[in-house]
């Protein structure tokens, strides 16, 4: 059995490895201090010392992009983990209890879906003040209904299996059944969803930071680099292009990886397209 | 006379069908209609009927997976649908189930010993769990070492033995077998039926045996309940019904099963 891996999985994995690798590297090494300014050396062209040149304050662009990758990964990871665990717990709970409790939880999730996600994040930032941790909370919050719905949908299918009925017949507590039988069975679907939501979270962080509601100076962020470069579009367009390319790479990478994982975890879906 | 092991009175269960009109309420399908029966300790009641006759719904109500819309199930004198959830979970030790599909009734990710021990874990038994799992495996004719293997290492007949081991590990008083041999080869069917009858003799089990196959049911059941479209058609001693079926439907089931009257 030598089945080829789906192309989107391979491309996605390579892009994700690149972005995550760069982010990890920035923990220990960047070519320069990403926040070190040098007004005399501003708008420098690419050179040995500054591979992609410097920005309007003379900061090294490569170093900033690397530090921003780290920030972006951290925000996305924390937000997806936080929102995902709450969502998965809610979904499992709704599915286990059933009846009007399940209906109530899912209608609340529908309510969550009804809010445009980014607008909601902007509202949170407006109420609680712009900061990276508020951006994380906002992104986490919009992830809760998504995970709750996916979890509950897959869990309901597993509850009808005979061995789950056997477990109920054994007198097992519904929450123990959720842990022992349901969760291991739906883990694949949740991981796929988490990968896709990771891409969405990266984009959301970039958007919030672009609007000035996410990462605050001097922290580096692709979104903020974009907004700073905006006013200099005619003078130094490359300053907008680099962070833009980084965002595209990261979002595309995680999106393709999620699609690819779905293709191999559920072969029924993959051939429909 | 002592209390029967299980008494079901007037069991009725409706399902809502998809709506056909916005203004009228959803039509109801009566899966089980006003059905009553009794199982005594050490006896086997066979429920026969074609698919869709409501016999699996009956099993699900006896197992308290579903609540009847009318009627009640008294197990050892207790109305199982009226018990609070924790007490029902405790009482479940006393009535266990064997499912139709031996490939679906065991979690493929867990060793079979883990699955067999599940009813024991439900009441928090720990010290003797291993010993009791091994005993149960030996009682169903398997080697005690089987506990560490995974379901895919066994054949269908062996898996059904494992499922039976799980059902008897708590020494229940009642076993519900829903088409427990239908998915098996004929030769394996006979082995499993023999096993069930041996266990019944050893443990004094009452068995609710559900099947579409009158030949199988006729071989092992003391009493019979014939169902069609959710309604009980006739009930009585197996020998009487096989010899002298009151309904044309029972007669046709007999013919289909190749039982000569």
Helical residues, percent of chain A: over 70%
- Looking at the structure, the CATH topology of chain A is MetI-like fold
Q: Sheet bearing the most strands of chain A, described?
A: none
The shape of chain A is elongated
Distance between the termini of chain B: 34 Å
CATH class of chain A: Mainly Alpha
Could you spell the SSE succession of chain A in H and E letters? HHHHHHHHHH
Q: So how many helices of chain B?
A: 10
Strand content of chain A: under 5%
Structural class of chain A: mainly alpha
Could you spell the SSE succession of chain B in H and E letters? EEEHEEHEHHHHEHEHEEHH
**Whole-number tally of structural domains of chain A:** 1
GO biological process, one term (chain B): transmembrane transport
Organism (chain B): Sulfitobacter undariae
Protein name (chain B): Peptide/nickel transport system ATP-binding protein
Family (chain B): Belongs to the ABC transporter superfamily.
Task: Provide an overview of this structure.
The complex is a heterodimer of chains A (273) and B (261). Chain A has 273 residues and is mainly alpha-helical. Chain A has 10 helices and no strands. The two termini of chain A are 23 Å apart. The model of chain A has no long low-confidence stretch (mean pLDDT 88). Chain B has a single domain, classed as 3-Layer(aba) Sandwich (Rossmann fold), CATH 3.40.50.300. In chain B, strand 4 and strand 5 form a beta hairpin. The longest helix of chain B has 18 residues. Chain B is globular and about 55 Å long. Classes of the chains: A mainly alpha (273), B alpha/beta (261). Chains A and B meet through helix 6 and helix 7 of A and helix 2, strand 6 and helix 4 of B. Chain B: This is Peptide/nickel transport system ATP-binding protein.
């Amino acid at each position: 059995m030598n089945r080829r891996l789906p192309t989107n999985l391979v491309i996605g994995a390579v892009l994700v490895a690149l972005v995550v690798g760069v982010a990890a590297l920035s923990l220990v090494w960047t070519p320069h201090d990403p926040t070190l300014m040098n007004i005399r050396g501003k708008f420098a062209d690419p050179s040995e010392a500054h591979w992609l040149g410097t920005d309007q304050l003379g900061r090294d662009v490569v170093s900033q992009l690397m530090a921003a990758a780290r920030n972006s990964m951290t925000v996305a990871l924390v937000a997806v983990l936080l929102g995902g665990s709450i969502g998965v717990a809610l979904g499992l709970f709704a599915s286990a209890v059933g009846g009007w409790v399940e209906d109530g939880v899912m209608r609340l999730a529908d309510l969550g879906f009804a809010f445009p996600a980014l607008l909601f994040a902007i509202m949170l930032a407006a109420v609680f003040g712009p900061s990276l941790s508020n951006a994380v909370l906002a992104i986490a919050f919009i992830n809760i209904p998504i995970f709750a719905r996916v979890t509950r949908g897959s869990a309901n299918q597993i509850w009808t299996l005979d061995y789950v009925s056997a477990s109920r017949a054994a007198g097992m507590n519904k929450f123990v059944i959720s842990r022992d039988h349901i969760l291991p069975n739906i883990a694949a679907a949740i991981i796929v969803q988490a990968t896709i939501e990771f891409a969405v979270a990266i984009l959301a962080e970039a958007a919030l930071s672009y609007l000035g509601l996410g990462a605050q100076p001097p922290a580096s962020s692709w979104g903020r680099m974009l907004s700073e470069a905006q006013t200099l579009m005619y003078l130094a367009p490359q300053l907008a292009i680099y962070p833009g390319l980084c965002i595209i790479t990261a979002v595309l990478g995680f999106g393709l990886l999620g699609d690819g994982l779905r293709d191999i975890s559920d072969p029924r879906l993959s051939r429909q397209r | 006379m002592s209390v029967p092991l299980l008494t079901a009175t007037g069991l009725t269960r409706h399902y809502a069908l998809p709506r056909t009109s916005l203004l009228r309420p959803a039509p109801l399908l009566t899966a089980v209609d006003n059905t009553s029966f009794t199982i005594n300790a050490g006896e086997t009641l066979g429920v026969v009927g074609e698919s869709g006759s409501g016999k699996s719904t009956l099993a699900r109500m006896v197992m308290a997976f579903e609540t009847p819309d009318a009627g009640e199930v008294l197990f050892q004198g207790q109305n199982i649908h009226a018990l609070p959830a924790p007490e029902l979970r405790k009482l479940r030790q006393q009535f266990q189930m064997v499912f139709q599909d031996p490939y679906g009734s065991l979690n493929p990710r867990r060793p079979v010993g883990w699955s067999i021990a599940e009813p024991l874990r439900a009441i928090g038994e720990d010290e003797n769990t291993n010993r009791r799992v091994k005993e149960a495996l030996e009682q169903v004719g398997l080697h005690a070492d089987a506990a560490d293997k995974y379901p895919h290492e066994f054949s269908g007949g062996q898996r059904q033995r494992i499922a039976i081991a799980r059902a008897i590990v708590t020494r229940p008083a009642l076993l519900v077998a829903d088409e427990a041999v239908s998915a098996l080869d004929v030769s394996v069917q006979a082995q499993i039926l023999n096993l069930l009858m041996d266990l019944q003799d050893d443990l004094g089990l009452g068995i609710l045996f559900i099947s579409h196959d009158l030949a199988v049911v006729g071989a092992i059941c003391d009493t019979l309940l014939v169902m069609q479209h959710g309604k009980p058609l006739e009930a009585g001693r197996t020998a009487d019904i096989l010899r002298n079926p009151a309904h044309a439907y029972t007669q046709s089931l007999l013919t289909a099963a190749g039982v000569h009257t």
